[in-house]
């Protein structure tokens, strides 16, 4: 939880206390539950939920739903998907039955659903974790329809913004699942529709970057190049913030990587790093390019420097290790016909310990 500190430490502490009181006023001991979740202490979240349920500390229906949400998220984060699905069995009866007007003695003069949106999203996502991909897609499309029906109503601006963000989240979830099965045509249609709906130039540029990535996977390199060119035009016409300039350079670098021009890709990624030393995508991708170029001494230097300046969690260590292991395996299988891969196999044996120290 981040509280504004613009008024000094004393103001920040007062604001923090007020925020915690608001949280606990909404739901029993919500502040400590939220703090555990922000720290990633998912087992402690499970313990706290179990304790609150066993001692009957939750007196109102919405409190049960909030604790159910945290419990389902914790189980999902711990990859206990079967238990998370069992936790959401009540959703099978329909979340729409959990409405304020159903409990007038608890919520006088209140109307609408009390179900947290995360429950609807998890209800759609979790079947894919158990191998039921089509069920997940069906539920996401139903959820998308539900959201769009909401957006057709006369909503206050704040509510409309929230539901628009939820629409984007669900569409991106659908795209992610479709991409995993190389259904690029559907992904392109969804992304183009999402771009048309977003009016701000910066948001449109970010979405167009995703469109370009899909085009690259689809094999439409010229289409991706054209999309990235439009993004560059949007950024040049705007304020040219560091984040957006880095987006342009990363797009150029990706095109160079596809063409196996790793030297040019490294140059583009270095520009990103020079502007923003915490650009994790640029750092990891530059390291990947250097690995393909067999510049392992520079690769290890980048990793060591990055570890000094970035939180460990920001660097994709498991991805780097996985890539090296895959390359080493490929080299072992193809050691005679591909001398370059055989070279990587020996590099892996020599440098693997550096990734763990």
Quickly count the helices.
17
Q: Give the proportion of residues in helices.
A: over 70%
Largest β sheet strand count, sense and barrel closure: none
How much of the sequence lies in strands comes to under 5%
Structural class: mainly alpha
Task: Compute the average pLDDT.
Answer: 78
Shape: elongated
Protein name: Trafficking protein particle complex subunit 12
Keywords: Membrane, Transmembrane, Transmembrane helix
InterPro entries: TPR-like_helical_dom_sf (IPR011990)
Transmembrane segments: 283-303, 310-332
Provide a concise account of the structure shown.
Keywords: Membrane, Transmembrane, Transmembrane helix. The protein is mainly α and 357 residues long.
Structural features:
transmembrane; 357 residues; Trafficking protein particle complex subunit 12; mainly alpha; TPR-like_helical_dom_sf; membrane
What topology emerges from the helices and strands here?
Blueprint (H helix, E strand, L loop, with lengths): L8 H18 L3 H9 L3 H13 L6 H17 L3 H7 L29 H13 L3 H19 L5 H24 L3 H14 L3 H18 L2 H17 L4 H17 L3 H14 L4 H13 L3 H14 L7 H17 L5 H13 L6
Write up what this structure looks like.
- With 357 residues, the protein is mainly α.
- 72% of the residues lie in helices and 0% in strands.
- The chain is built from 17 helices and no strands.
- Helix 3 runs antiparallel to helix 4 and helix 11 packs antiparallel against helix 12.
- It starts with 8 loop residues before the first helix and ends in a 6-residue tail after the last helix.
- The relative contact order is 0.04.
- The N terminus is likely disordered.
- This is Trafficking protein particle complex subunit 12.
- Keywords: Membrane, Transmembrane, Transmembrane helix.
């Amino acid at each position: 939880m981040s509280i504004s500190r613009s008024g000094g430490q004393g103001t920040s502490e007062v604001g923090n206390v007020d925020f915690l009181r608001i949280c606990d006023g909404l739901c029993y001991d919500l502040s400590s539950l939220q703090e555990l979740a922000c720290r990633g202490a998912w087992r402690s979240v499970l313990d706290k939920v179990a304790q609150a349920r066993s001692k009957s500390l939750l007196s109102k229906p919405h409190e049960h739903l909030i604790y159910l949400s945290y419990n389902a998220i914790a189980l999902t984060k711990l990859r206990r998907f079967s238990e998370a699905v069992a936790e959401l069995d009540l959703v099978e009866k329909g979340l729409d039955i959990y409405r304020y007007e159903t409990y007038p003695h608890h919520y006088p003069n209140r109307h609408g659903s009390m179900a947290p949106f995360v429950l609807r999203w998890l209800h759609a996502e979790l079947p894919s974790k158990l191998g039921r991909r089509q069920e997940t897609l069906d539920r996401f499309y139903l959820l998308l329809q539900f959201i769009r029906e909401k957006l057709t109503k006369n909503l206050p601006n704040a509510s409309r913004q929230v539901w628009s963000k939820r629409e984007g989240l669900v569409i991106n979830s659908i795209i992610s699942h479709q991409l995993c099965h190389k259904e690029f045509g559907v992904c392109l249609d969804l992304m183009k529709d999402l771009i048309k709906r977003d009016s701000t130039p910066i948001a449109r540029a970010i979405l167009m970057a995703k469109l370009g990535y899909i085009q690259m996977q689809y094999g439409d390199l010229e289409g991706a190049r054209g999309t990235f060119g439009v993004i560059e035009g949007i950024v040049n016409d705007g304020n040219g913030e560091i984040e957006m300039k880095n987006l342009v350079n990363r797009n150029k670098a990706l095109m160079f990587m596809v063409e196996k021009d790793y030297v040019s890709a490294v140059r583009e990624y270095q520009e990103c790093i020079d502007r923003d030393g915490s650009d994790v995508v640029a750092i990891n991708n530059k390291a990947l390019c250097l690995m393909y170029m067999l510049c392992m001494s520079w690769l290890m230097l980048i990793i060591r420097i990055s570890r000094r300046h970035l939180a460990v969690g920001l660097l994709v260590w498991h991805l780097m290790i996985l890539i090296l292991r895959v390359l080493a395996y490929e080299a072992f299988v193809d050691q005679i016909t591909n001398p370059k891969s055989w070279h990587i196999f020996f590099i892996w044996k020599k440098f693997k310990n550096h990734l763990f120290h």
